[in-house]
């Protein structure tokens, strides 16, 4: 049985989007992230993130592209139908049923990227097992610091802190028990 791990990058001033301009994928934190995701059973994505990533990664090369392109992608959407490109499979049925079923079927962990409506829906329903924030040692000064909008509070508790030589700190949170 796998866990669903929501992972994101953030700056000290809280910027989470767009990551492409400031994220530093190299270094010991990048190696850590790469190794874990390369061993995973796939990615869980919302429609918008799936469409955005599938428009970028298939034309890229290198170790990250090779890994991301080969992983299965499980997509939550109420608007997509039929066969999906880029190793994509639509999640079948309600999230409360399809996510636990998927976690039972896979051998490794599943990683979710993106921080929009889909991520909030999963968090609100208690379907995410861990939340990872790679806190980068920089102030970006522009970008979106809160992409979810005013949707409500989902409480978490600190599970672990890992410090990397690169200066990045990985904060791992678990759903709050009370």
UniProtKB/TrEMBL annotation:
- Organism domain of life: Bacteria
Secretion signal span: none
Matching entries from SUPFAM superfamilies are given as: Dihydrofolate reductase-like (SSF53597)
What InterPro entries does its record include?
DHFR-like_dom_sf (IPR024072), RibDG_C (IPR002734)
Question: What Pfam families does the record point to?
Answer: RibD_C
**Annotated ranges, domain Bacterial bifunctional deaminase-reductase C-terminal:** 3-170
**TM region(s), chain numbering:** none
What protein name does the entry list?
A: Dihydrofolate reductase family protein
């Amino acid at each position: 049985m796998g866990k669903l791990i929501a992972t994101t990058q953030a700056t000290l001033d809280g910027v989470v989007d767009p990551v492409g301009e400031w994220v530093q994928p190299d270094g010991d934190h990048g190696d850590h992230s790469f190794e874990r995701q390369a061993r995973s059973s796939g990615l869980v994505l919302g429609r918008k993130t799936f469409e955005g990533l599938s428009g970028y990664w298939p034309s890229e090369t290198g170790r990250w592209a090779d890994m991301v392109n080969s992983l299965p992608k499980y997509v939550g959407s109420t608007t997509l139908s039929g066969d999906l490109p880029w190793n994509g499979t639509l999640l079948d049925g309600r999230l409360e049923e399809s996510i636990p079923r998927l976690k039972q079927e896979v051998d490794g962990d599943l990683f979710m990227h993106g921080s929009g409506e889909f991520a909030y829906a999963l968090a609100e329903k208690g379907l995410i097992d861990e939340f990872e924030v790679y806190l980068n040692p920089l102030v970006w000064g522009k970008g979106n610091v809160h992409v979810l909008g005013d949707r409500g509070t989902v409480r978490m508790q600190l599970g672990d802190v890992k410090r990397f030589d690169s200066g990045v700190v990985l904060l791992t949170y678990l759903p709050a028990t009370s």
